[in-house]
Specification:
Helices cover about 80% and strands about 0% of the residues. Strands 1-2 form a two-stranded antiparallel ribbon. Strand 1 and strand 2 form a beta hairpin. The C terminus is likely disordered.
Length: about 325
């Protein structure tokens, strides 16, 4: 099929733009995302937050985000920006990548959903279910559930022989997994997060009237949670809309159409990874207490590095 000069110019420009966006946006998301996940982990393990069941869900979600960025986003950067894609040539890497990025995505969303449920329960008569040991068990159960539920991806992930492209082995399974991810990740989980987020928002005024430290902590966590839910739902909606557009409105064949599909898929991937990368910065902007704990963390490290050695001082100083 012959390509006109205008179409070839568009193809070259799209390829160049895709590489530039990879070098700027995707690499930036990876760097700030990994840094944010590290700080999230440190802060949610500090004394003020670590005894809260909601913080434990935040911590688990942050670890899932880090895994998603390291495996999924890194492989996308290598693929789109450097034309280096070992998962398209190694069957083991192909299966591992498809399996792990789907697990990390579902884990992050599910932990955020249960954080919403936890915040709702703590403002009702079922607040006794919002306990740390219960949250730990639920986190383990959710991880086991998704590891088992998505194990079929290890079977059906294959490398197509002529094109050397890592995807799924049959068209029927491609349809199944597309609908599976679209319905669960794009519809059910976001809708449930919205429902419990609104229920939590309804009870925030009640939380604000309480003056004890525990109630203030619940208030801070609720604000962070609602903002993270809003960010997750918005970008998931944009990503899902891109997938629906590709599936139903971009079915034409040819090199030009294939490149447009690939570029739209690339833009959708950018929106897909944004919530995983900016969670820490959303928390910083939303919660005054989170900012306070972050400053304490930095101040603790500075005091530790700059403190002169004094044998007469207490060898076990206490830091807030």
């Amino acid at each position: 099929m012959n390509i006109s000069i205008e179409d070839q110019l568009i193809i070259d420009n799209l390829k160049s733009l895709q590489k530039q966006l990879t070098y700027t946006i995707l690499i930036s998301l990876l760097i700030i995302g990994i840094i944010g996940c590290i700080f999230n982990t440190i802060i949610f393990l500090r004394p003020y937050f670590k005894l809260s069941s909601c913080s434990r869900y935040f911590l688990a979600s942050s670890l899932a985000n880090a895994f998603q960025l390291i495996i999924g986003l890194t492989s996308s950067i290598l693929d789109f920006g450097f034309s280096f894609h070992p998962h398209h040539h190694s069957l083991i890497l192909c299966k591992f990548r498809n399996y792990s990025i789907n697990i990390a995505g579902f884990l992050s969303q599910t932990y955020l959903l249960f954080a919403c449920i936890d915040r709702y329960l703590i403002t009702t008569r079922y607040r006794r279910m919002s306990r740390l040991f219960i949250a730990n068990r639920i986190i383990i159960f959710i991880a086991c559930f998704w590891f088992i539920n998505l194990s079929h991806m290890l079977i059906y992930s294959e490398i197509s022989s002529p094109e050397y492209f890592c995807f799924y082995s049959s068209s029927s399974y491609i349809l199944f997994i597309s609908l599976h991810n679209l319905i669960l990740s794009g519809l059910i989980l976001p809708i449930l997060m919205i429902i419990f987020g609104l229920l939590t928002l309804k009870n925030i005024q009640q939380i604000r009237r309480q003056v004890c430290a525990r109630k203030r902590r619940n208030h801070y966590l609720s604000l962070m949670l609602l903002t993270n839910v809003g960010v997750s739902v918005i970008f998931t909606f944009i990503y899902t809309s891109g997938l629906i557009y590709l599936s139903f409105f971009m079915s034409n064949q040819g090199e030009f159409s294939s490149l447009k599909r690939r570029f739209i898929s690339f833009v959708a991937i950018i929106f897909y990874y944004i919530p995983y990368a900016i969670s820490f910065y959303v928390n910083i902007l939303t919660s005054q207490r989170f900012r306070c704990e972050f400053k304490k963390c930095l101040h603790w490290n500075r005091r530790k590095n700059d403190k002169p050695i004094n044998k007469n001082r207490n060898p076990h100083p206490r830091f807030d």
